């Protein structure tokens, strides 16, 4: 990468995109960043960025390195207004983190995750310096019928049929990835698929409570839809951001697809997660056995939800648990062989920072935590 090449990051005010921007700033790359932000002008874009980046660990000194020169005001998929921006001619690397990440059936999923992705590819295709276009997908784009032994390889082909996906979000990411390959065969595309991103190794769940609340709910209710000894593949956002930046800047990559996952090395069982909470001094429901139930039995938990999680709409929570219960039953571990081969260190297991996640959410209601995943 030349000294004046730029790194375009979309989704810099989102969870993973902001973590990646902070990682780049702290690596001395602030002057090379071009951050796409939805805002009417650079001043408001910078204000949005400062709030989000500080939330995810940026210092005042980090933020001071950003100016209007690092901001591209635009909104996916409407990019025609920035097509002639001369800074795009300097972009050598695109990190496309922007997405509507929700487990609700949101009407804008297709517009943002599919149309927006194709619009960005069209904007950048053929730019003279472009050498890498990183598409941040999701490991769960593999669908719900992908491997008999629950071990998911870093494969190119993904199922697109609706019946293979538990939520529209994972299908939209699979379609976006497929269409990039079909419509832009000359794009220097590399696909990164994070597994379940939960918390931050230093900040816990302060930046985002996404998904962590599900672990706490299972524990409060004393039930699981899977075995205590089944594993779950979880990674922290700051490790994910470091892996993204490593792959973005590496001179050559041996493969076109990478799982940003815990893999067999760092995935942990529900029993290990529960014991880690107990070892951290969390009292009450931790460190005990769970009742294993079927997803179809979750509605029977509504009376228990009313007593143990009184701050929630019990029927809404039961509906959410059915969805997460189906994910848990898959018991997937995502192979990260390609990733490790490129020199990325294994992810820290959730057991190492789960106590911090619990402490950081102690005074936040389950109802408010759920809003991160049901926009």
UniProtKB/TrEMBL annotation:
Gene3D superfamilies: NAD(P)-binding Rossmann-like Domain. Signal peptide: none annotated. It comes from the Bacteria. SUPFAM superfamilies: NAD(P)-binding Rossmann-fold domains. Residues 5-164 form the Ketoreductase domain. InterPro entries: FAR, FAR_NAD-bd, KR_dom, NAD(P)-bd_dom_sf. This is SDR family oxidoreductase.
């Amino acid at each position: 990468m030349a000294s004046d090449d730029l790194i375009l990051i979309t989704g810099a005010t989102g969870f993973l995109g902001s973590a990646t921007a902070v990682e780049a700033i702290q690596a001395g790359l602030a002057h090379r960043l071009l951050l796409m932000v939805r805002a009417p002008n650079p001043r408001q874009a910078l204000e949005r960025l400062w709030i989000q980046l500080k939330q995810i660990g940026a210092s005042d000194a980090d933020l001071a390195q950003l100016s209007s020169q690092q901001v591209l005001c635009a909104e996916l998929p409407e990019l025609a207004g920035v097509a002639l921006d001369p800074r795009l001619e300097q972009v050598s690397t695109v990190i496309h983190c922007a997405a509507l990440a929700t487990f609700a059936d949101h009407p804008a999923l297709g517009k943002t995750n599919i149309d927006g992705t194709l619009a960005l590819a069209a904007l950048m295709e053929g730019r003279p310096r472009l050498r890498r276009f990183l598409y941040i997908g999701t490991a769960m784009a593999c669908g719900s019928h992908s491997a008999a032994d629950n071990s998911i390889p870093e494969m190119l082909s993904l199922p697109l049929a609706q019946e293979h996906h538990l939520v529209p979000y994972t299908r939209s990411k699979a379609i976006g990835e497929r269409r990039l390959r079909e419509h832009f065969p000359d794009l220097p595309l590399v696909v990164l698929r994070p597994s379940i991103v939960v918390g931050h190794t230093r900040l816990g769940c302060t930046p985002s409570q996404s998904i962590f609340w599900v672990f706490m709910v299972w524990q409060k209710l004393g039930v699981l839809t899977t075995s205590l000894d089944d594993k779950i593949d979880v990674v922290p956002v700051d490790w994910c951001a470091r892996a993204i930046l490593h792959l973005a800047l590496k001179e050559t990559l041996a493969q076109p697809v990478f799982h940003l996952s815990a893999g067999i090395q760092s995935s942990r069982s529900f029993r290990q997660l529960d014991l880690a909470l107990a070892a951290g001094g969390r009292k009450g429901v931790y460190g005990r056995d769970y009742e294993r139930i079927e997803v179809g039995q979750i509605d029977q938990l509504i009376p228990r939800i009313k007593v143990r999680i009184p701050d929630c709409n019990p029927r809404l929570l039961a509906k959410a648990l059915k969805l997460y219960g189906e994910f848990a039953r898959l018991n997937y571990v995502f192979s990260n062989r390609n990733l490790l081969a490129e020199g990325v260190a294994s992810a820290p297991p959730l057991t190492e920072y789960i106590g911090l996640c619990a402490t950081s959410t102690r005074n936040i209601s389950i109802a408010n935590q759920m809003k991160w995943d049901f926009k």
